[in-house]
Structure formats: structure tokens, C-alpha cells
Write a structure and sequence with these properties.
The structure holds 2 protein chains of 2 kinds. By secondary structure, chain A is α/β, with parallel strands linked by helices. Chain A has helices spanning about 45-50, 75-80, 100-110, 115-130, 145-155, 175-190; strands at about 5-15, 20-30, 35-40, 60-65, 70, 85-90, 160-165, 195-200, 210-215, 220. The chains are: A alpha/beta, B alpha+beta. The interface of A and B includes residues 81, 110 and 154 of A.
Chain lengths: ~220, ~270
């Protein structure tokens, strides 16, 4: 039986007291699975994802990620947990003062890898996301699709146990979207990473089996 | 240009703090050195019936460092030259003993007075004469400067610290996005604030160097030497050690501020 990497029990999330965004939701995500979370705009998809990486603490109920209870997690433990996560944002969240190479290296530097290992892994990943030759570019010099591929390479750099993606192809052209989905599939199939994607619409040509969670009126339902 | 302005905004308050601290330290050192210098320029003459011993005196007055007997034959010789017919040996047996007393530091007028009283209480001492030279005005001025510098130190320390705090807060805001992204990938606290630490260390180094060079120039200029009439106001070794000390203080202030400001990040980061 596959291990559960995310377990939510009667989870309530809110920014303001008594205004819940996610209401009493119970669900779990098993290791190695590919999960889509859908819902209308403002339904709480991104809020739910934020809670998975400890950005938002449960108001009530419980939330375990990687076996760690996030309700009252200490900053040092949260840093520890995040080393095993790869996060992708719709707005990329690249460090604008750093070039492509250093941005991709970030999780490796945090993990304490040697410079040689960081260099080699970064080179391999940039080739993988088809950005070889753009190592020295700064984010502002890249297109949106290229920036998202850099963010993708950064998220995959340290072989994360869980990849959390918030609308990863929301602003991208078809080519970049296909590259991103291909990379997410690859990470799931080849590395065994659990992939959780928040999106408006599930791509039709996906080549991996997936689960579909849907949020309606603040409650998380399993669709398939 | 913006970056330069940012650096100057931290360098100026740090410079002000370090400059005032060094001013206070330096005045203190100059006073001590000046006291040593003056200590060679006063004399206390003790007249005693019986021989005095330094050890016995030091038991009662700790800051006595030297006791030198004045040879009475010199005085008698001078008297003889005036033509007075004297029997030196006979006269010598009647004369009391004269001593010159040296102290470890320059005594104030009050100290000289109390010293005189303490000496007169010692058995065998008949009379004490003290002679001070004309340096007391400068000495009093230095003491006044020392007291004023304490007051300025307090004001500049408070104002300077507030400005340092403000500047680090600005830096923190400027780099907040980078630190936030690093936090999302699990960077430890020290790694996140490394950029702020680096900036503050560079600015501390610049401020310390500026303070150090200005004081080095002032102390080597003839103006102060002439004003005080002393050749070496402060030993070069003392200025160098002050430089290190100031750098340490500057580092402490800036690193402490960086940590305090960064710890006030939202808890959920």
C-alpha cells in the first residue's frame, strides 16, 4: 500500500477568523501520485496549495505533509520540510538579481551540495528544459515561457519528494506548456515525485494516470 | 546611484557612532597620557626627622612610586660658596632629611592637598611642600571635554542606532522578495539574511576605515601637539587597537540590527 504524503483531516483554512476558504475537508494524497486540484476562481485552490508548503497554517483540523504536522510547525522544521518540496508558481518567483544558473542552483545550494555538483546538475537541468546557452541571462531578459522553464528546472534540481505547482502553465504559450507538462510527467514517472497541480483545466493529452480533486463551496471532493 | 545612496545611508550613522566613541576613548587616553606627562612636571618635597622608606610610605599612600633623597651636601656647598663660615659635618647632623616624592599619575589640586595631610600624619614627617606648574588649565579643559563627549556619545548613539535600524529596514524591504523565495525552498535563516550581512559588513569596514584615517591624521597633525605641548599624544599601537575595537563594535551594531529586523518577518515565512 502506497504511503500517504499529504493527509488532511477536517481541514479548515482561512485568512480571517470565521471566514473559512476551505471547510472541514478530509483527503489524502499518496506517494508517487499525480493529482490535479481544480475549482472556480476564488474557490481556494491556491490557498490549499499554500497550506501544503506551510505558508498558511490550518485554522482547525490537521494537515500532515511528509509525516510532519503543519498546524504549529516551527520555522526550523518548516525549512527542513521545504528542502523536500519543489514549488512552481504562476508568476515564476525567480530571483531577479540572480542569473538563470544561480536561480536553478538555489535548492542545491540550500541542500549544501558542492559547487561542482551544483554546476553539473544545473547544466543537465537547463538542457532538459531546453535553455542551454542561457545560463548567464537574467530573468528579465527571458520570455514568460522561458522563465517558467527556469522555475521548473529549479523545482526539479534537488529531486523533490513532492512537487507543488500553482497554475504552472497559466500564462504560457502552447510550446512552453507542453514542455512544462512533459517535465512534470517525467518527474512523476522517472523520479517518482508526487505531483500536485492546481489548475483551471486539466490538459487532455496527459500521458500519466492522475487523480482529480475539486473544490466547491470550500469543500474538497474527489472526482476521479 | 541608488545603491551608493543606500550605502551612504548606513555609512553616515555608523561613522557618527564610531567617531564619537573613538572621540571619547581618545580623550580618555590623551588625559591619561597627559597625566603621565604632567607627573614629571610637579614636585612634592618632604622634610623628615628620620630616614623614610618607600615600602613604609606605600603602605599608607599607594600611588607613591619613587622616593628620592635630596643630598644636603649640595645645599651646604652652595652656602659655603656665599662665604659663610660653617662646619658642614656639624650642620649636617642638625639638618632634617629632604626627599622628593613621585606619584604614579598627575594629582589634582585636591589630591595634592589630601596627600599633604596624609603625609603629615606619618610619624617623622615634619613638613610637606608641593609645587605645581601651569598645566592645570589644559588639564581641566581635557576633563571638561571628556565629560562633554559622554553626553554627545549618548545622543549620537541613540540617533545613530535609530538611523542604522531604519536603513537595515529599507534593505530588508528591498531584498524581502529574494529572502522570501529562499525561504520557500527551505533556506536557513543565516542564508536568507546573508545579503544583508554582507552589505552591513562592507559598510562597517568603510566607516571604521574613515574614522581610523581621520583620527590618525588629527593625531599626527602639529595642531594638537602644539596645543597640548606634548610630542606623543597617543601611542600608534593604541590607535591601531582602537581601530580593531571600533570595527568590532560596528559589526556588532550592524549584525545585531540585521538579525532583529529580519526576525520580525511574518511568521509564516
Amino acid at each position: 500500500m502506497a504511503k500517504k504524503v499529504i493527509v488532511a483531516k477536517d481541514l479548515v483554512l482561512s485568512y480571517k477568523k470565521n471566514v473559512p476558504i476551505i471547510k472541514n475537508s478530509t483527503f489524502s494524497i499518496t506517494s508517487g501520485s499525480f493529482v490535479f486540484i481544480t475549482g472556480a476562481s476564488g474557490s481556494g485552490k491556491s490557498t490549499l496549495l499554500r497550506s501544503f508548503y506551510g505558508e498558511l497554517r490550518p485554522r482547525s483540523g490537521s494537515l500532515h505533509v511528509g509525516g510532519i504536522l503543519l498546524n504549529d510547525i516551527k520555522p526550523s522544521k518548516l525549512s527542513f520540510l521545504r528542502k523536500y518540496l519543489g514549488i512552481i508558481f504562476q508568476d515564476y518567483k525567480l530571483i531577479k538579481e540572480w542569473n538563470v544558473k544561480k536561480n536553478v542552483m538555489l535548492p542545491l545550494l540550500i541542500a549544501g551540495y558542492s559547487k561542482d555538483v551544483c554546476e553539473a546538475q544545473t547544466k543537465r537541468l537547463l538542457k532538459h528544459v531546453r535553455l542551454e546557452g542561457k545560463e548567464e541571462y537574467y530573468p528579465v531578459e527571458l520570455s514568460g515561457g522561458e522563465q517558467q522553464r527556469v522555475a521548473m528546472a529549479r523545482a526539479l534540481a534537488h529531486n523533490p519528494v513532492i512537487i507543488l505547482a500553482d497554475e504552472p502553465t497559466g500564462n504560457l504559450d502552447d510550446y512552453s506548456s507542453r514542455v512544462i507538462w512533459g517535465l512534470l510527467e517525467g518527474a512523476n514517472e522517472q523520479l517518482g515525485s508526487t505531483v500536485v497541480v492546481v489548475t483551471h483545466s486539466i490538459p487532455k493529452d496527459l500521458n500519466v494516470p492522475y487523480r482529480h480533486l475539486h473544490i466547491e463551496n470550500g469543500v474538497v471532493y474527489e472526482i476521479s | 546611484m541608488r545603491s551608493l545612496k543606500n550605502h551612504i545611508s548606513l555609512i553616515i550613522p555608523l561613522f557618527a557612532i564610531l567617531f564619537t566613541v573613538e572621540f571619547y576613548l581618545l580623550i580618555d587616553k590623551i588625559i591619561k597620557n597627559y597625566e603621565k606627562y604632567l607627573s614629571k612636571d610637579y614636585s612634592i618635597v618632604v622634610v623628615a626627622k628620620e630616614p623614610l622608606k618607600l615600602e613604609n610610605l606605600r603602605q599608607k599612600i599607594e600611588d607613591v612610586i619613587k622616593l628620592k633623597e635630596v643630598d644636603s651636601s649640595l645645599v651646604l656647598g652652595r652656602l659655603k660658596q656665599t662665604g659663610i663660615d660653617l662646619d658642614p659635618d656639624q650642620l649636617k647632623s642638625y639638618l632634617p632629611r629632604f626627599y622628593k616624592l613621585y606619584l604614579s599619575s598627575f594629582p589634582s589640586t585636591q589630591r595634592l592637598q589630601s596627600l599633604k595631610e596624609e603625609l603629615l600624619q606619618i610619624e617623622g614627617i615634619q613638613r610637606v611642600e608641593t609645587f605645581t606648574k601651569t598645566h592645570e588649565k589644559i588639564y581641566k579643559f581635557l576633563i571638561f571635554l571628556n565629560n562633554i563627549s559622554k553626553f554627545f556619545l549618548a545622543i549620537i548613539l541613540v540617533t545613530g542606532l535609530m538611523l542604522v535600524f531604519k536603513q537595515i529596514e529599507i534593505w530588508n524591504l528591498e531584498h524581502s522578495e529574494r529572502m522570501y523565495i529562499m525561504a520557500l525552498f527551505g533556506a536557513p535563516f543565516w542564508m536568507r539574511i546573508a545579503v544583508l550581512l554582507k552589505l552591513s559588513i562592507i559598510d562597517t569596514l568603510i566607516s571604521t576605515l574613515l574614522v581610523y584615517l581621520i583620527y590618525l591624521y588629527l593625531l599626527n597633525s602639529n595642531y594638537l601637539k602644539e596645543l597640548l605641548g606634548v610630542e606623543d599624544l597617543v601611542a600608534p599601537r593604541q590607535i591601531a587597537s582602537d581601530g580593531l575595537w571600533l570595527f568590532g563594535l560596528g559589526l556588532f551594531i550592524s549584525i545585531f540590527t540585521v538579525i532583529v529586523v529580519s526576525l520580525r518577518e511574518p511568521k509564516n515565512r
